[in-house]
């Protein structure tokens, strides 16, 4: 059974920083892509950033220059460093991973972690 467990959310003032982490565990052969998505109240879930096993990164335009995604392949963990946070970054952040396991290859999601940017 594959699981993704996130940590690092919380309340921060505008202009502040947070670092999210997501660790994958279970019967994993390889993790092709890991990423972060977010969903604000009343809005659809949207892509924030992704990173491949080779280190190629993509970012939503709204977070470019402020957020940095990274991963530790050995620890099967992805990180999201969020700087210069804005109130509009407030959302539940979800970890996502495209995982090849011993039985199949599919997307997995974490349970979500709340990020609130407010003074």
Keywords:
119 residues
Shape descriptor reads elongated
Total count of strands: 11
Helix share of residues? under 10%
Q: Given the structure, what is the number of helices?
A: 0
Gap from first CA to last CA: 40 Å
Mean pLDDT: 96
Order of helices and strands: EEEEEEEEEEE
Q: What does this protein look like?
A:
The chain is mostly beta strands and 119 residues long. Helix content is 0%, strand content 60%. The protein has no helices and eleven strands. Strands 2, 4, 5, 6, 9, 10 and 11 form a seven-stranded mixed β-sheet that branches. It starts with a strand and ends with a strand. The model has no long low-confidence stretch (mean pLDDT 96).
Q: What is the element layout, followed by pairings?
A:
Layout: E1 3-7, E2 10-12, E3 18-25, E4 28-39, E5 46-52, E6 57-59, E7 67-72, E8 77-82, E9 91-101, E10 105-109, E11 113-117
Parallel strand pairs: 2-11
Antiparallel strand pairs: 1-3, 3-8, 4-5, 4-9, 5-6, 7-8, 9-10, 9-11
């Amino acid at each position: 059974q594959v699981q993704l467990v996130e940590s690092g959310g919380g309340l921060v003032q505008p202009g502040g920083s947070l670092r999210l982490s997501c660790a994958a565990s279970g019967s994993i052969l390889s993790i092709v892509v890991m990423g972060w998505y977010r969903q604000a109240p009343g809005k659809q879930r949207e892509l924030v950033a992704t990173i491949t096993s080779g280190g190629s990164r993509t970012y939503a335009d709204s977070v470019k220059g402020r957020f940095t995604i990274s991963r530790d392949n050995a620890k099967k963990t992805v990180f999201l460093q969020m700087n210069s946070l804005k109130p509009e970054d407030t959302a539940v952040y979800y970890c996502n991973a495209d995982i090849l396991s011993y039985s199949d290859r599919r997307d997995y999601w974490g349970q979500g972690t709340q990020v609130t940017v407010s003074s």
